Amino acid sequence: MGANGIELAGLLYDSTSTAFDAWEWTAVLGAPAALVAGAVLVTLSETRDRMQPRKSDKNWIRCAKQWFRFLTMTSFALEVLSIFVSTVTGTVLLSHGGQIAKNMVGYAAPLELLHHHHELEYLTMQIGFLQGLFNWLGAVALDQLIPEPNETKSAQRMNRCMSASIVTLMFWIQAFYNNHLTFYSDYFGVLRRYVFLFAKAYVWRWPIRPMALLYIPATIGSMILAWQAFISPPDEDDDDSIVLMGNEDVHVCVEVVEDRINLMKN
Questions:
Q1: Alpha-carbon distance 19 to 17, whole Å?
Q2: Contact assessment for residue 143 and residue 66, using Cβ atoms and an 8 Å cutoff
Q3: So what's the pLDDT on residue 102?
Q4: pLDDT recorded at residue 237
Q5: Which residues of the chain have pLDDT under 50?
Q6: Closest C-alpha to 137, from 103, 106, 172, 98
Q7: How many angstroms separate the CA atoms of 25 and 86, rounded?
Q8: 101 near 141, Cβ under 8 Å?
Q9: Looking at the whole model, is its pTM more than 0.85?
Q10: What span, in angstroms and rounded, lies between the C-alpha atoms of 58 and 39?
Q11: What secondary structure letter does DSSP report for 239?
Q12: Contact, 254 vs 75, CB < 8 A?
């Protein structure tokens, strides 16, 4: 499998019609990935304020909030990655011709073509969509577990029920996926293979890729920042700086401002 444009220039497929069918699969996968990405953004925007860790939070609540924010953002990034790779791979699939009969590889199905010529891209699309879905569902489950102020015991029990149901759904999705895999034994086998292919294509490679001088330090820096975020001590957080206002609070603030303006005029 070629990793750059020059190496892919001479790539030929057994059948251009099979390559076209593989392109249709990449296009179809991009649609649900876009739907999940949109749902993740809605979840993040609706919970951004109340998911800020506070000094008064219990340790498990603080940890849950941190993991919620991490899971939502990584979910969005993974879904965008799946959409991007599916789009680029679809372009590659429609850019090459067919083999002559004596040089045919021997695959018959569209996904066999993807697996043979573009295994890294194939795994990136699969992992990006599935892991992004898992991260989003995990974040929603955490959101249900974190209690709200003045929440009743009945509401908390129902939230725990919904959280457990989401986790159970994730187990069923994983089992269904493992049972329908074609080229690998299970999802963990997919991840192992992906790590190997990714490291071979983008890390342990000579001559070194010019972009590696940027994305390798950026990756290390992101990991350091993530570690610092997770070990941030509660003492550094000021609860007074976090203001969560409802409609009644807004009206009160408006009335106070109007009163002060009137006093200044008098």
A1: 5
A2: no
A3: 52
A4: 72
A5: 1-7, 101, 242-250, 252-253
A6: 172
A7: 9
A8: no
A9: no
A10: 28
A11: G
A12: no
pLDDT at 93: 85
Between helix 187-202 and helix 119-145 the angle, nearest 10°, is: 120
DSSP string, 244-264: ---HHHHHHHHHHHHHHHHHH
From residue 153, alpha-carbon distances to 61, 142, 147, 257 in Å are: 17, 17, 10, 38
Instruction: Determine contact, residues 14/113, Cβ cutoff 8 Å.
Output: yes
- Predicted pLDDT at 250: 45
Packing angle between helix 59-93 and helix 212-230, nearest 10 degrees? 160
pLDDT number for residue 125: 94
The span from the CA of 180 to the CA of 184, in Å, is 10
DSSP state for residue 186 in the 8-state scheme? S
The whole-angstrom separation of Cα 234 and Cα 58 is 10
For residues 197 and 123, is the Cβ–Cβ distance under 8 A? yes
Contact of 230 with 66, CB cutoff 8 Å: yes
Distance of CA 204 to the CA centre of its chain: 25
Position 38 scores a pLDDT of 92
CA 197 – CA 121 distance, rounded (Å): 10
How confident is the model at residue 159, as a pLDDT?
A: 92
Tell me the CB-side half-sphere exposure of residue 81, using CA atoms within 13 A. 20
Taking the mean position of all CA atoms in its chain, how far away is CA 233? Answer: 27
What confidence score (pLDDT) does residue 28 get?
86
pLDDT at residue 205, rounded to an integer: 80
- Mean of pLDDT over the chain: 83
Within 10 angstroms of residue 29's Cβ, the number of other Cβ atoms is 20
Contact call for residues 22 and 112 (beta carbons, < 8 A): no
- List the structure tokens of 225: 């920042």
d(CA 135, CA 70): 9
| DSSP helix/strand/coil, 121 | helix
pLDDT of residue 151: 84
